[in-house]
């Protein structure tokens, strides 16, 4: 995103609206967008806050275009076909059977909440978890940003790109969860951003949520609130 | 897309924060899903939601009103309805069960409350997802009271600096907490920013 300095009156109304504080006030040219920090989320322009309509979207070419894909919620990812930067994950598990009994889903959302991330940090975490033989969710846009999904290595030209968040998403056998949680805990010390992460599993017939005991036994915090698929989708996936 | 998860708060202030999401699945039941998604909205509107929204096309401000949201909904949309009380949640669940739209429905909220609502509506949980919190350089995060407001937009469209600006406006009596919450809602394109909860949180901050 850019500001047309011919029409900008330096009123500063846009500054606080930027989710990543990329609109700077104290530059020699007055209000300016720091393009290195800007994640191309579109919030400043979409808000129509500028009284002189001076905020405009420059043409985004690859590799910068991935910033918009991963940060602007209204951009449709070709891989998933849905808006946002994730996938259907557990939301449609009632019809897809994506997370079967004995498996859990894990999603590590790099840069969330609101801190943003370089793709180099996403690569660090991806390369750590892939050593356990996980297969990244193929519908997730970050999988297509990897030069080799088997190693978690990203394409070199993307490593310095910055986005509001990027989700590393995979399913693993229940037995592997303790080791995986420890791997993620260790790699969290090596990154220059934050992540929010989550775990999902199919509820057992007796109402037990399999991942809860595993997580609690390891002494990890687990949220009192969560997402609950109500099983109303059709045709229902037939679980074993 | 975990945009309705990771909402930060206490058990007390998360009471009254329930987000229904309805979506089709690619290549399984997405063809012809638009009218069913519209029906989801119609059912939700019967129960006085705090907000409704469409993650594909934007919230009521972006689309130009609630009616536009209903008119514009497309086959592959991901739609949401937000409620602030269990009675409405139970009524919504009962209607969705009876209507049998055939699309996946997810409810985000406190686990204990969701379980209670399911029992009363005659539904069984299928799959559950929990947050494991925020890790890494957490010293970069804003304070808890700001996070509680900011994380209600899962895509982080609501800027921390703007939240502080709105709190300051309320402190100076230039805005009510409700008006500030409505301003904060505007960039949340999916319409899942809970203005009712945000107003309560802002009032609590200002009173401290």
The CATH class of the largest domain in chain B turns out to be Alpha Beta
pLDDT < 50 stretches of chain B: none
- Given as residue ranges, the uncertain stretches of chain A (5+ residues, pLDDT < 50) are none
| Percentage beta strand of chain A | 15-25%
Shape of chain B: globular
User: What is the helix content of chain A?
Assistant: 10-25%
What class, by secondary structure content of chain B? Answer: alpha+beta
Most extensive interface: pair and counts? A-B, 80 and 81 residues
Q: Tell me the major beta sheet of chain A.
A: 3 strands, antiparallel
Main pleated sheet of chain B: 4 strands, antiparallel
The average pLDDT score of chain A comes to 94
Helical proportion of chain B? 40-55%
How many domain regions of chain B? 2
Helices of chain A, by number, come to 6
Radius of gyration of chain A, rounded?
Answer: 20 Å
Biggest β-sheet: strands ordered side by side in the sheet of chain B: 2-3-1-4
| Large-scale geometry of chain A | elongated
CATH fold-level topology of the largest domain in chain B: Alpha-Beta Plaits
Number of helices of chain B: 10
Please provide the ordered H/E string of secondary-structure elements of chain A.
EEEHEHHEEHEEEEHEHE
Distance between the termini of chain B: 35 Å
